[in-house]
Design a protein that fits this description.
By secondary structure, this protein is mostly helical. The protein is built from 3 helices and no strands. Helix content is 81%, strand content 0%. The protein starts with a helix and ends in an 8-residue tail after the last helix.
Length: 90
């Protein structure tokens, strides 16, 4: 990225743009996990196991699993693309 930036000063670098998108995805994933942990701790303190067995809790943590399963591969693939390694799914 640095060599490309030196060759074209002031021009946007495609790899830097891709890396920016990857960092955004990673930030969103971290926020999901952090909020889910906070919800878990709060709900456990409120009502113990019964509160964690409610439909709201089940949906919340299923949503976390879905977000993690979708975003994690995108973050990894994007990071590989940003550094110049192309990964092709089989």
């Amino acid at each position: 990225m640095r060599a490309s930036a030196r060759q074209r000063p002031g021009a946007p670098i495609p790899a830097a743009l891709r890396l920016s998108h990857v960092l955004t995805e990673l930030t969103l994933l971290r926020a999901e996990v952090t909020q889910a942990l906070a919800d878990f701790v709060a709900w456990e303190a409120e009502g113990g196991r019964e509160r964690l067995m409610t439909m709201a809790s089940v949906l919340r943590f299923n949503s976390l699993k879905l977000a993690a399963s979708e975003r994690s591969p995108r973050v990894c693939e994007g990071a590989l693309e940003a550094i110049g390694i192309v990964w092709l799914p089989q």
